[in-house]
Amino acid sequence: MTELRQLSLNAFIYPSGHHEAAWRHPWSQPERIYDVRYYQEIGRIAEAATLDAVFFADGPALRTDVKHNVASGLEPITLLTAIAAATTHLGLIATASTTYYEPYNLARLFSTLDHISGGRAGWNIVTTGTDLAAANFGLDKHPEHAERYARAREFVDAVVALWDSWEDDAIRLDKEAGIYADPDKIHPIDFVGEHLRVRGPFNAPRTPQGHPVLVQAGASNDGRAFAGKYAEAIFTAHQRLEDAQAFYADIKKRAGEFGRAADQVKILPGISPFIADTEAAAKRLEREFNELTVPDYGLEQLESIAQTSLRHLPLDGPIPLELFSDAGDVTDNERSRRQVVAGIVQRERPTVRGLLHRLAGARGHRVFAGTPEQVADTIEEWFRNRAADGFNVMPPYYPGGLEIFAETVVPILRERGLFRTEYTGTTLRDHFGLARPQSRYAPALAR
Predict the structure, then answer these.
(1) 121 near 96, Cβ under 8 Å?
(2) Whose CB among 18, 187, 210, 350 lies 3.0–4.6 Å from 354's, allowing a Cys bridge?
């Protein structure tokens, strides 16, 4: 029997894999991370498995300790255009910052990707969580959290208004009369906010999707409020089913408060699966990767979350509980990830080394080691129990980690009636089951 509600599955692309030591493992290919053919290959693997989309994170600064890990600074919207040329149905989601772009420029970039791909683009909206970017844009410091979100709200309002500024039937293409477009159906937006001013109109018509899918990844209080109003898909990180269920219910409720249907907001946690024929072999594989980690690298990442130095702590000594005792009140994106880490510390009481290994797999996203059936079981459990509408699959290593997921887990999900056997539409909105939005300037009867 086929389940009416269907999973969404994205491949979250991270240079050589989501485990921080992936680049050192013989199964990864770090020498290819600046080769476009590498990403096109990953895109083709994802499309062959009928995944909804590939997704790229991004930030306008060098954040990685490049002494101990790879850094891929390729700009994702351009890279996704190359993947679009190598695929026909796969969704294409890129991260871009409302703090370090301007609305008109970013609207053009994503509109172009959506047109080129035939309606497969998605924008992962971020405000940028690191102050390393500020100096790259001539600023003395990174804007405060509240200011970034105030600008982000204006930014999204302006960008969507630009995308809407051409009515769907604005193009006439009347060769005989010499009329290409009807100017009365193309509107200046005259957007004026506290942070941004954009006159418009846009310089291209609406895209096949109406506009690219709006995606968001912040789990802070401001981030959740933002997601409830704007996001059509939400990327999130949870370790436990009950935490994911609470987040799921909260976001759906917030969306409803803005008059939005719950099924038009997709909640997609991350899962990083180590997959092998037996559970013991999968756990051995995870340990094999963990043994390749460099403690100095992991400590630097953990210190950014703990917001204090940890170098004085013995690696095989316990993590002091008080380091994360103030993590309960989520006020910004960094603290939301801090909550995830605090939960691990409180429940598991790990050593410093143990915590570094827990975070090495996917930076706080859920790492799972098991057989294909066990991976499918945990995906199904979260999906059926309203903890997720689908998942961002975060393979520990690329491209093989995605291949094994596609070849072993996806068929099981299909057999259970949880995932498509073929694409039933051509756009990312089709894949996610999202409606095509009407232009705000469309006649009232057409809305």
Answers:
(1) no
(2) 350
CA distances for 137 relative to 123, 128, 153, 246, 290, angstroms: 21, 13, 21, 38, 36
Tell whether pTM > 0.90.
Answer: yes
pLDDT at 443 over 80: no
Q: For residue range 246-271, what is the model confidence (pLDDT) as tens digits?
A: 999 999 999 999 999 999 999 999 99
Mean pLDDT on 353-359: 92
- pLDDT tens-digit readout, 396-413: 999 999 999 999 999 999
* Residues ≥6 apart with Cβ < 8 Å to 384: none
The predicted structure's pLDDT at residue 333: 41
Measured from the Cβ of residue 248, the count of other Cβ atoms closer than 10 Å reads 23
Among candidates 28, 144, 40, 137, which has minimal Cα distance to 92?
40
**In the predicted model, is pLDDT for residue 329 greater than 50?**
no
Place of tokens 């380091």: 323
Contact 232, 265 (CB under 8 A): yes
427-436 pLDDT, tens digit per residue, is 999 999 999 9
Q: Which residue reads 């390749």 in tokens?
A: 292
